[in-house]
Amino acid sequence: MTSKKEAPVTVPETHRTEPISIEHEMKTSFINYAMSVIISRAIPDVRDGLKPVHRRSLYGMWDMGNTSDKPTRKSARVVGDVMGKYHPHGDASIYDTIVKMAQPFSYRHMLVQGQGNFGSIDGDSAAASRYTEVRLYPYAEALLEDLDKETVEFKPNYDESLQEPTVLPAKIPNLLVNGTDGIAVGMATKMPPHNLKEVCSAVEAYLDNPEVSVEDLLRIMPGPDFPTGGILMGVEGVKNIYSTGQGRVIVRGVAEIEESEGGNRGDRIIVTELPYQVNKAQWIGGIAEMVKDKKIDGISDIRDESDKEGIRVVFELRKGTMAPVILNNLYKNTALESSFWTSNLAIVDGQPKVLNLHGLLGHFVQHRIEVIRRRSEFDLKKAQEKVHILNGLLIALSKIDAIIKAIRASDTVDNARNALIAQFGLDEPQANAILQMQLRRLAALEQKKITDEKNDLEAEIRRLEKILESEANIKDVIRQETAAVAEKFGDKRRTQIALDTSELSTEDLIEDKAVLVSITSANYIKRMDIDTYRKQRRGGHGITGMTTKEEDLVDSVFTASMKDYLLCFTNNGRVYWLKVYQIPESSRIAKGKPIVNLLNLKDEVVTTVIPIREFRADQYLIFATKLGQTIKIQLDEFSNPRSTGTNAIRLKDNDRLVDVILTGGNNELILTSRFGQSLRFHEDFIRIVGRNAQGVRGMKLKGDDTIVAITLLEKDHLLTISDVGFGKRSEFDEFRGHGRGTMGVRNMLLERDAVVIESRAVLDTDEIIAMTASGIVIRIPVSEFRIIGRGTKGVRVMKLDEKDKVVGIAVVSAEMASGNGNGDGEAGKPEE
């Protein structure tokens, strides 16, 4: 057998291979994939706020006549129609999209009206598409309106058998109203919903002034408006989002405490609203686990009483449990308080961009300008064509006999048309309209209708031409339509705004008790229980109250209640706000925490601290400076805490603030200097001024003397303490009144180099806590001090070690000493 020679194999040209770089191919393929996900799947268009699957679902329902005025249709039919015509990516993504657009807890304004089981806030899934029915909501139809007037571009669908819109006309700024979220490749979008009326007002504000400030927009749109309600904690986060397009807001659920009646059971906490996108069932389950693990103590039972009317979750508390504490634990440790992170990422001209509020409003307005321009051009063209036809009909009616004769003389329709065009000056559309005209239109009434219709169309043409004359006229139309949308679909805000987050703070967890606060010359601060120091008799050695560095000395000490505000005044006349409970509690011998870690100080030190419970308009602060100036300012001038502090008073060169007191406005004062002089005068001699004033001279000083204290003539006696450990009580009558700006009279006889460090009005039932520069503290009843005349040395307060000195005292009232005080404390003053 002879073998045949095999012919060589020829590789077709289409099967040839070419070497490529795998790195280049991976980069190119990944970028193409990423852009496809970003543009065609995950990120919404800035103009209508929709992703392609949402847009195709709504357009598919609109195209098949599944509108709000028609009966609902099976979801499976809608899903199949959308998938077969526009979105060939599986039925699951389409049905999930339709379900979410029909959930009142997901969308602020639903786009789809559902009939059947569409899931719940507990995370329950919707029923299968064969069991549910849907149709468009009127709100969604406002997005689709004018789609048939060439207002937007269309493109071929996936198999080029049909056309689909690239964007919807969108009368409503849907991206802001309903928000959105989506995860693409390397980027994500997450936007909160807002109130429709507020958004429409913001659009109008932008139309009036494209440079409108964020602050003005914030007054119109104070923040997101979630479908599940809740409480928005503060507006700083909202302002950041409006300014930059990114940021975070804190949302709390709405809860109320129901107190028990008669004490037979514990109180209740009833939650009626949850933060947006919180799964209620998972939230309750998580709390149950915390109760079981003792992470939250005091809850005896949890009941979910929610129904179609709304959320109602009841927490039964054990008898004797503090409900505010439990509620704050729920806020702190569960999703009852949640963060909503925002990234305003949207597709702009085919590219993903992060937009601030100006950008979102601006792109929507530009889209509406284009839509209204194209719609007006379309309507104008149609109106002009219609008028042209009516003119032909009117010509025919005016020459009806000749028209009929010409038509009867023609043997075909084409000949009749040509005869009309040739004999009567008509064009082809007019001739066709005459040939199609019904005999009933020959009636006189029908002729009038044609004339009236022509007049109406000509008026409409003039209106449309006026709109197209300028962009300003188009903007007027946007204003009108936006206002109509707000009126038709708008409703009340659901999410409350807590402008001051302290309204719902964790202060309920704090025991409001009296404490002792001390500050060193290096500005270390600490707080301690008053009971840390037991009472001693006058003349004792005291106990160690603070361990300080060798170069650091205790500067002042005062009492306050845990929930008081501390007005911290610095040497250069600025004021800072601090809550007492924000000061770390320390042991008796600890040095405390640097105050710069608690306040935003700027090359300054705190010299005076005033505890304040409430900022009343009928109370005043009187300031005393080292060089004798006095300033009187209404207390409520300091009622707006600022984290960066603010100017309280204005100081002359080489002067500094040394003391501040709180007054009711009708008191006498005593200014005391370090060399033992005291001046008594009425506060009416100091006029009331605003913050940052320089004030007037309070006391005339001699030589190197300086002011160390200012106090009110109230209570029983004036207590004066020197730095060498002597003190005394004096009758107020010992100090006769002098005019403001004089030198006053001798208060205390001082040893060589000794100075007065404090002069304070006290009750005979008060106690004082005195502290030395080395941190030694003694607590003494005021009654231990003899009542003696002015100009005397006094009695020994405490025995001092060599070179140690008393630097400050705190006055403790009997109420404070019992632990029940919640009023304003008094501050001890520093040594000069």
UniProtKB/TrEMBL annotation:
It holds the Pfam family DNA_gyraseA_C. Residues 447-474 form a coiled coil. Residues 43-509 form the Topo IIA-type catalytic domain. It is found in: Cytoplasm. Keywords: ATP-binding, Coiled coil, Cytoplasm, DNA-binding, Isomerase, Nucleotide-binding, Topoisomerase. GO terms for cellular component: chromosome; cytoplasm; DNA topoisomerase type II (double strand cut, ATP-hydrolyzing) complex. It catalyses: ATP-dependent breakage, passage and rejoining of double-stranded DNA. The active site is at 131 (o-(5'-phospho-dna)-tyrosine intermediate). GO terms for molecular function: ATP binding; DNA binding; DNA topoisomerase type II (double strand cut, ATP-hydrolyzing) activity. It comes from the Archaea. Its EC number is 5.6.2.2. One of its GO terms (biological process) is DNA topological change. SMART domains: TOP4c. A motif (GyrA-box) lies at residues 536-542. Its main location: cytoplasm. It is an enzyme of class 5 (isomerase). Belongs to the type II topoisomerase GyrA/ParC subunit family. Heterotetramer composed of ParC and ParE. A type II topoisomerase that negatively supercoils closed circular double-stranded (ds) DNA in an ATP-dependent manner to modulate DNA topology and maintain chromosomes in an underwound state. Negative supercoiling favors strand separation, and DNA replication, transcription, recombination and repair, all of which involve strand separation. Also able to catalyze the interconversion of other topological isomers of dsDNA rings, including catenanes and knotted rings. Type II topoisomerases break and join 2 DNA strands simultaneously in an ATP-dependent manner. Few gyrases are as efficient as E.coli at forming negative supercoils. Not all organisms have 2 type II topoisomerases; in organisms with a single type II topoisomerase this enzyme also has to decatenate newly replicated chromosomes. This is DNA gyrase subunit A. It comes from Methanoregula formicica (strain DSM 22288 / NBRC 105244 / SMSP). The gene is gyrA.
